[in-house]
Specification:
Length: about 250
């Protein structure tokens, strides 16, 4: 695995030590600096360089060392596709990867000692995202949706709200089929930023679909998805009424 490593003046010494550990573990290091001690250098330069290397897939993971780790984390998380966290214990270091797909580890060179850092780095590097657990995948997709909402132009976003009323005896079958459709959509369509199936609290036989798409093309792509056709075929006999509440640009809501 290639790991991008960077650090400012406050993390310079520890950064070089960490790079040596990573190499000894059999991994390749992409050192983005600092390459010399400079008391006036700035942590955002190195945190951004590590984050951009990860986001562009020049490296699979990243490690940044500054004074506290906080500034590096704030900076790295501004780069789309990066999930950075300050971890000063081994549990957070491996759990962050396993559950949250953490891809940039931030460390405070003025906060923790050398030996605890060695264990933290090993826990982080050796951990893998638990992709076989549906709950972790679901939560990661929600994180990505929040990120996409933040990076998309507001004028591009498309909102679709549809209300369905179903036969009482068909309620559970409709609900289960709809949840499956929502899961398929979120898993297979990066242009879908949100898809919620909401039960009406006033009428147990009514459901509201709340969908947000990055743009009109993404919404159109959803209408052509094979699992949507399967959902339509399965649920059509169950539906009493369908009402499109809104299907317009989000800036007009």
């Amino acid at each position: 695995m290639r790991i991008a490593i960077g650090g400012d003046h406050a993390g310079y010494g520890l950064k070089n030590t960490v790079a040596g550990w990573v190499k000894a573990m059999g991994h390749e290091v992409l050192d983005v600096g600092a390459h010399a001690y400079d008391a006036l250098d700035d942590y955002p330069d190195f945190a951004a360089a590590v984050a951009e290397a990860v986001a562009s897939r020049k490296a699979e993971r990243g490690i940044v060392v500054c004074g506290s780790g906080v500034g590096a984390g704030v900076t790295a998380n501004k780069v789309p596709g990066v999930r950075a966290g300050v971890c000063h214990d081994t549990y957070s270091a491996h759990q962050g990867v396993e559950h949250d797909d953490l891809n940039v580890l931030c460390l405070g060179g003025r906060i923790i000692g050398v030996e605890p850092t060695r264990e933290i780095v090993a826990a982080y590097v050796n951990a893998k995202f638990v992709s076989g657990e549906a709950k972790y995948v679901r939560r990661l997709n929600k994180v990505k949706a929040v990120e996409a909402l933040g990076t998309a132009k507001p004028g591009d976003l498309q909102v679709l709200i549809v209300t369905f009323e179903v036969k009482p005896e068909s309620r559970q079958a409709f609900y289960e089929a709809s949840l499956e459709d929502a899961r398929n959509t979120k898993a297979n369509e990066p242009g879908c930023l949100r898809f919620d199936v909401i039960e009406d609290t006033q009428n147990p036989n009514k459901f509201v679909f709340y969908e947000v798409y990055r743009d009109a093309d993404a919404m159109k792509a959803h209408t052509q998805a094979p699992y949507l056709a399967k959902w339509v075929e399965a649920t059509r006999p169950l539906i009493v009424q369908r009402q499109l509440v809104r299907g317009r640009n989000i800036t007009k809501l």
